[in-house]
Amino acid sequence: MIPSSNIKAMVLLFLTCVVIRASDFSFSDEVRYQSLIREFRCLACQNQSLVDSRMPFAFNLRQQIYSKVGDGATNKSIREYVVSRYGNAASYNYAIDYSYFILILSPFILLFVMAYLFFKRIIK
Fold it and tell me: Which fold has domain 26-93?
Protein backbone atom coordinates (compact mmCIF):
# COMPACT_ATOMS: atom_id res chain seq x y z
CA MET A 1 0.00 0.00 0.00
CA ILE A 2 1.26 3.45 -0.91
CA PRO A 3 1.48 5.91 1.97
CA SER A 4 -0.86 8.86 1.72
CA SER A 5 2.04 11.34 1.73
CA ASN A 6 3.39 9.74 -1.48
CA ILE A 7 -0.04 9.92 -3.09
CA LYS A 8 -0.33 13.59 -2.15
CA ALA A 9 3.13 14.27 -3.58
CA MET A 10 2.26 12.51 -6.85
CA VAL A 11 -1.01 14.45 -7.18
CA LEU A 12 0.78 17.72 -6.44
CA LEU A 13 3.47 16.91 -9.02
CA PHE A 14 0.81 16.05 -11.61
CA LEU A 15 -1.14 19.27 -10.98
CA THR A 16 2.08 21.30 -11.16
CA CYS A 17 2.89 19.78 -14.55
CA VAL A 18 -0.61 20.54 -15.80
CA VAL A 19 -0.39 24.15 -14.60
CA ILE A 20 3.08 24.64 -16.13
CA ARG A 21 1.94 23.21 -19.45
CA ALA A 22 -1.28 25.25 -19.40
CA SER A 23 0.67 28.45 -18.79
CA ASP A 24 2.93 27.85 -21.83
CA PHE A 25 0.13 27.66 -24.38
CA SER A 26 -3.05 29.49 -25.00
CA PHE A 27 -6.13 27.44 -25.78
CA SER A 28 -5.80 28.11 -29.51
CA ASP A 29 -2.14 26.98 -29.44
CA GLU A 30 -3.14 23.78 -27.69
CA VAL A 31 -5.84 23.12 -30.29
CA ARG A 32 -3.31 23.77 -33.09
CA TYR A 33 -0.78 21.45 -31.45
CA GLN A 34 -3.34 18.65 -31.05
CA SER A 35 -4.52 18.97 -34.65
CA LEU A 36 -0.94 18.99 -35.95
CA ILE A 37 0.14 15.86 -34.10
CA ARG A 38 -2.93 14.07 -35.46
CA GLU A 39 -1.78 14.90 -39.03
CA PHE A 40 1.52 13.05 -38.70
CA ARG A 41 2.31 9.39 -38.29
CA CYS A 42 5.06 7.73 -36.34
CA LEU A 43 7.57 6.31 -38.81
CA ALA A 44 8.81 3.76 -36.26
CA CYS A 45 5.37 2.24 -35.62
CA GLN A 46 2.82 0.32 -37.62
CA ASN A 47 1.04 3.37 -39.06
CA GLN A 48 0.05 4.93 -35.73
CA SER A 49 -0.45 8.65 -35.37
CA LEU A 50 1.86 10.64 -33.13
CA VAL A 51 -0.95 10.84 -30.59
CA ASP A 52 -1.19 7.05 -30.25
CA SER A 53 2.50 6.17 -30.48
CA ARG A 54 4.69 5.66 -27.43
CA MET A 55 7.95 5.30 -29.36
CA PRO A 56 10.90 7.66 -28.66
CA PHE A 57 10.73 8.90 -32.26
CA ALA A 58 7.12 10.01 -31.78
CA PHE A 59 7.97 11.62 -28.45
CA ASN A 60 10.79 13.63 -30.06
CA LEU A 61 8.64 14.70 -32.99
CA ARG A 62 5.84 15.77 -30.63
CA GLN A 63 8.39 17.85 -28.70
CA GLN A 64 9.63 19.48 -31.90
CA ILE A 65 6.09 20.35 -32.97
CA TYR A 66 5.30 21.59 -29.46
CA SER A 67 8.30 23.92 -29.45
CA LYS A 68 7.53 25.22 -32.95
CA VAL A 69 3.93 25.97 -31.97
CA GLY A 70 5.23 27.68 -28.83
CA ASP A 71 7.62 29.76 -30.95
CA GLY A 72 4.69 30.98 -33.04
CA ALA A 73 5.39 29.06 -36.26
CA THR A 74 2.48 28.70 -38.65
CA ASN A 75 0.84 25.35 -39.35
CA LYS A 76 2.10 25.48 -42.92
CA SER A 77 5.72 26.04 -41.86
CA ILE A 78 5.51 23.20 -39.32
CA ARG A 79 4.10 20.84 -41.97
CA GLU A 80 6.84 21.86 -44.41
CA TYR A 81 9.49 21.30 -41.73
CA VAL A 82 8.28 17.81 -40.86
CA VAL A 83 7.85 16.76 -44.51
CA SER A 84 11.25 18.17 -45.50
CA ARG A 85 12.94 16.39 -42.61
CA TYR A 86 11.11 13.03 -42.66
CA GLY A 87 9.52 12.90 -46.12
CA ASN A 88 5.93 12.51 -47.29
CA ALA A 89 5.60 9.24 -45.37
CA ALA A 90 5.39 11.18 -42.10
CA SER A 91 2.18 12.94 -43.12
CA TYR A 92 -1.29 11.49 -43.50
CA ASN A 93 -2.18 14.41 -45.81
CA TYR A 94 0.68 14.34 -48.24
CA ALA A 95 0.64 15.92 -51.67
CA ILE A 96 0.30 13.48 -54.55
CA ASP A 97 3.49 13.26 -56.55
CA TYR A 98 3.41 12.08 -60.16
CA SER A 99 6.16 9.57 -59.45
CA TYR A 100 3.56 7.65 -57.40
CA PHE A 101 1.49 7.13 -60.53
CA ILE A 102 4.43 5.50 -62.27
CA LEU A 103 4.97 3.28 -59.25
CA ILE A 104 1.30 2.29 -59.09
CA LEU A 105 0.72 1.87 -62.84
CA SER A 106 3.97 0.09 -63.74
CA PRO A 107 2.76 -3.43 -62.78
CA PHE A 108 -0.37 -3.00 -64.93
CA ILE A 109 1.66 -1.71 -67.88
CA LEU A 110 4.08 -4.59 -67.49
CA LEU A 111 1.18 -7.06 -67.33
CA PHE A 112 -0.37 -5.55 -70.46
CA VAL A 113 2.93 -5.78 -72.38
CA MET A 114 3.48 -9.38 -71.25
CA ALA A 115 -0.06 -10.36 -72.28
CA TYR A 116 0.38 -8.65 -75.66
CA LEU A 117 3.64 -10.50 -76.32
CA PHE A 118 2.14 -13.78 -75.13
CA PHE A 119 -0.91 -13.53 -77.41
CA LYS A 120 1.21 -12.30 -80.32
CA ARG A 121 3.38 -15.39 -80.00
CA ILE A 122 0.37 -17.74 -79.79
CA ILE A 123 -1.29 -16.24 -82.88
CA LYS A 124 1.95 -16.51 -84.86
Answer: Helicase, Ruva Protein; domain 3 (1.10.8)
Tell me how far apart the alpha carbons of residues 74 and 72 are, in angstroms, rounded to a whole number. 6
Q: Please say whether the dihedral angle defined by the alpha carbons of residues 89, 90, 94 and 97, taken in this order, is positive or negative.
A: negative
Instruction: Indicate the pTM of the whole model.
Output: 0.61
| Helices vs. strands in the chain: H and E counts, helices first | 5, 0
pLDDT tens-place string over residues 41-91: 988 887 788 999 888 999 999 999 999 998 989 999 999 999 999 888 888
Angle, nearest 10°, between helix axes 27-39 and 75-86?
A: 30
Domain ranges of the chain: 26-93, 96-124
